[in-house]
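DM from R.C. (forwarded with permission)

"hey, sorry to bug you on a friday — could you get me a structure for this? deadline for the figure draft is monday and I only need the backbone to look sensible"
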Amino acid sequence: MSLRPSITGESVPSAARQQALLTLLADEDPGVVGAIREQLAPKGRPLPWLKAHRLHDDPLIRARVRELLEAQARLEADREFLEFCAGHGEHFDLEEAVWRLAQTRNPEAPIADYQAQLDWWAQAAAPAVEAASDGRAVVAALNAVLFGEQGFCGNSEHYFDPDNSYMDRVIDRRRGIPITLCCLYQFVARRLGLPVVGIGMPGHFLCRYQDVQGEWLIDAFHEGRLVTRSEARQRLAHFSLSDSDGAILLQPITPRRCLQRMIANLHVIHQERRDASESRRLQQYLVLLSR
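My reply, with the result:
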């Protein structure tokens, strides 16, 4: 059967023609499937009428149509994220950047729903935060919601799982690494008007809450444990840093450097896994962010 007749024009094929093409998309022969994929998604761009078949009755057809559509959506999310990285300086909305990064992996992530969850957790913590007498009590109020009620914690068992670096998956699984859990902590704190910032230490990441009474360093990976400045300096001493270098590293990290570090973590993971495609994708982001 010839697969050559073009269907890349503006006209929509008849229902019978669409079904014939979709049936071939589910063929057992990889060569047939490859040829049909090229026709249904010329230059990687799925034809508009394919969207109507996202919920096709045949599970294999449904899966392959979704693959075509999701591949295009990822390309668009990738392009938009590259533009975001190139178009901003050191300071931008870190939460927006984190969600844009998540969409490069999962374009269909319901971002508005995740943001509503962050709103809800902030509302849940608000009464205790408002009643807090000092920073320690403020931190305890946030910890009670995020690490107590919601069960977030560091993913020590599978630390190098890429899902730990994408905020939608962190929220879904209630697991993350220091930098993503600290970002989550900051996003909830921001909704309460609390000045919580990220501290990008070597090999670790902390949050800092500071008010007129003092400062509190928070280890979100270990369920919000408070860390003294002395303990933080001891950790820095393991890296043979001078006192002046240590003082600099205990200062807030900019959104750009935070995002760069998050992506660098992912890049290392995919290099270790010898995943060339993902490594190249992430490397593009790092090049732009390092400028």
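R.C.: lifesaver. Residues 1-10 have pLDDT under 50 and may be disordered.
me: no worries. The chain has twelve helices and six strands.
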